[in-house]
Amino acid sequence: xxxxxxxxxxxxxxxxxxxxxxxxxxxxxxxxxxxxxxSYSGIVRGKKLRLFRECGTVIIEGADEAALKxxxxxxxxxxTDYEQLRVEMTRLCPELSQAAAKLNGIRILSQEPWEALCxxxxxQNNNIPRIKxxxxxxxxxxxxxxxxxxxxxxxxxxxxxxxEELAPLRAGFRARYIIDAARKVSSGEVDLSGMKTAPxxxxxxxxxxxxxxxxKVAECTLLYGLHRMEAxxxxxxxxxxxxxxxxxxxxEKLGMTAGIAQQxxxxxxxxxxxx
Length: 275
Hints:
This protein is α+β, with helices and mostly antiparallel strands.
């Protein structure tokens, strides 16, 4: 994606390929909030960040050349041509054409793997406001203060705790799952870094050795935390969609466009943009 660095930050020219609302509210992340002015503020890898749109340009506030290259280029996946992905996924599955036309600009974020795993453990049988609340309390209770906000606590910090010590989070049965995940990740029993290149079937099996992690959480971790674009999370919304509007769509047909297609289907189904 073309950009220029100005006094305001990094200005992304191809803004039609980066819709802030569709990207941050499509269910893939929980630490971004919309401001009254339409901007979005979030905490990424221990850093506060704000993005806004102006005259067709997306601006990453305060980002200089070094930060863009070392952090934000990867996080926002700026080197990937998402328009080409849209074209390819609709070629493979024409049933996706309407969703792709109405929800242009979704990008798959490259989130920190442990944060993605932990966040989607929290997401089980939960709604987005409650998920965000639990994640916020987790960060405030066990993360580092980064000037009025808090970083996501590392697995090593949580591994030494007992589930009862997470009671202030009000995470319920998920507290036990969080601690088990933290212990297995921090010990290396579950090797998240190795999952970036390992066979995806092996990664799924390894993730599901964590107490409480089933197929959906494993798939979310692979897509949102490890950027495995062939991953295809399926929950109750997706099951309904695949049985109705998107009958005939499958990850096997979509190949390496499965992950972005999943986001279009999921967001289209939840957001009520039909018509």
